[in-house]
Every structure is written in structure tokens, then in C-alpha cells.
Amino acid sequence: MSSLNIVATGKSTLLRGFPVSLKLEKPADIATVADVKAALAAKFPQLYVERQKLSLKGETKALNDDAILATTGIRDGGELVVKDLGPQVSWRTVFVTEYAGPLVIHPILYHLPKVFYRGSVQHSQLQKYVYAMVILHFAKRELESIYVHRFSHATMPLRNIFKNSLHYHILSGLFLAYPIYGPKYAANSPYIRGTLRSNPQFLWICASIWLFAELSNLSTHLTLRNLRPPGSTKRAIPHGYGFGLVSCPNYFFESVAWAAVAYMSGSWAAWLFWGVSTAQMMNWAAKKQRAYKKDFGKEYPRQRKAMIPFLF
């Protein structure tokens, strides 16, 4: 058995009773940070494990749940700092929610033109292709979120569900769907009739590039899934298709898929979503590559770019 002094940082009302003395059933040389979180949650049920961030006094970096107290410098009677991270929601819930937006918005605008465009729209082959590609993309993302992805963290702050959903519901939902299913892109529109965008071969080539990118993206997601056993937060260096050139080929292939949609349609909204999404994925890829290099050091392949082969 061991005891710890837990002090609080931040202005959360859940931390008004701190500092507290906490008793652990295990000695400090075998007790983990996860044991401390569990004991805190038992004492303060509203401060459930996922809401807690534990760190050493004078530091802001969170301690890993599997870290043994003694190895972090904490002995019997030592002190840890807790911060309330606020209400949490599972990563899976966030992903399912954000991808559901386009799956609802696109069918509504596509199938109810009289409501939104004040008249009927004879859909062109281009509109049919884009509609199918968008629906299949987000249906794939939903299935991946439920059956493929394994997450290193169980939850994220609840506020993120609104921020993330805004990106998908607005940019790839309303902003993309409204103009592209309207009269400008209809079968009898001068923008479509007799142009490259009515050419079946052009549409087929763009759709083929999109399909290649989507299947490649799925392949990399399966590779990442197989690196992490169920219920584990284990990290390993990914290898195989796509990973020989970049650290995050899943992001690269997703960018290619949306570029195919944007180029095929010529829609400013599609290009806007592609640009914003690609910039965000490049930022994520850079962070993930830094994390890989930090975790694996010289073992990590130095020639890999973060996301775009040979460039970035």
C-alpha cells in the first residue's frame, strides 16, 4: 500500500475538494498512473478516468497510463498534479457523427431539387458520378470507423465533436452538395452539354483514379490496424504498400481521391474542400512523423516524407 498527495490545476468545479490524500492498494514500485486515475475516479465519480490528466509537479506533459510511479520519480507520499480535461466523448462516436453529415445532406439535395432549386433538375452523368463517389466515400469512412480503426486514446474533448462536424457537415456537406447538384451542372446546362464533363471517357478516368485512391486508402488503414492488437496502445513502425515513401499514405490517397472529384467537376466548392482537407492532413502528417521519429529514433526510415512522396 502507498499514499499520494494529489493537487489540482485549472478552474474546474470538480477539483474544489483538492488537494487530497489518496491511498493505493499497491506500493509505488508497481503501481501505475492508471491505478492512480482509477482510485481518483472511485473517490470522485464525476472525475472519470478519461477526464483526468496527471502530471509531475512543475511539468505540463501528461504521464502515460502504463508508467510505473517509481520510474517517474514518485515514491510513497509523493505528489502528482491532476487537471480536469472536461467532458469527453469516444473517438469512434466523433468519427461516426462527423461522417454522417454528408451522408444525410447529399441525398436530401440530390433527390429534392424542387425544394432547394425551385424546379426540377435533370441530373447529368457528372452529377451522378459525384453523388455516388461522395456517398461511397463517407459510407466507407463510417464502416472503417466502426470496424477498422483502433484508437490510441479512448476519448477526446466533447467540444471537438462540434468543431470536427462543422468541417464535414458544412464544407463537404452543404457547400459541396448545394452548387454541384444544381442547374449549373445539370444535363442540359451549357457548362456540361458538349464539353469534356459530358465525355464518358473523361468521367470514367476520373472515377478510376478516385477508386484507386479509395482502395489504397483502405489498404493503408488495414495495415495500421494490424500494427495494434485489440485493446492495446502499442506503436510500431508501419511498412508495406504506401509506407515506403511516406509516413501517412492514408492521407495522401485521401487527398488524391478528393482531387479527382474536384478536377472532374471543376466545382469551386470541391476544390475548397480539397484544399482545406489537404492542408489539415499535411499538418497531421507532419505531427505523426515527428512522433514516429521521436519514438523509434534511428530505426525509423529517414528517407520517408510525411505525406506527399518526394515533396513533403
TrEMBL record:
Instruction: Name the SUPFAM superfamilies on file.
Output: Ubiquitin-like
Give the pathway.
Lipid metabolism; fatty acid biosynthesis
Membrane topology of this protein: Multi-pass membrane protein
- What molecular function terms (GO) are annotated for this protein? very-long-chain enoyl-CoA reductase activity
Record field: transmembrane: 166-182, 202-220
UniProt entry keywords in alphabetical sequence: Endoplasmic reticulum, Fatty acid biosynthesis, Fatty acid metabolism, Lipid biosynthesis, Lipid metabolism, Membrane, NADP, Oxidoreductase, Transmembrane, Transmembrane helix
Question: Which domain of life does the protein's organism represent?
Answer: Eukaryota
A Pfam family recorded for this sequence? Steroid_dh
Q: What is its EC number?
A: 1.3.1.93
Biological process (GO) annotations held by this record are: very long-chain fatty acid biosynthetic process
Q: Which InterPro entries match?
A: 3-oxo-5_a-steroid_4-DH_C, SRD5A/TECR, TECR-like_N, Ubiquitin-like_domsf
Per UniProt, subcellular location reads as: Endoplasmic reticulum membrane
Q: Which PROSITE patterns match?
A: S5A_REDUCTASE
Q: Which parts of the sequence belong to the TECR-like N-terminal domain?
A: 24-72
Residues annotated as domain 3-oxo-5-alpha-steroid 4-dehydrogenase C-terminal: 155-312
Primary subcellular site in the record, as a coarse category: endoplasmic reticulum
**What does the entry list under GO cellular component?**
endoplasmic reticulum membrane
What family does the database annotate? Belongs to the steroid 5-alpha reductase family.
Query: Which named protein is this?
Result: very-long-chain enoyl-CoA reductase
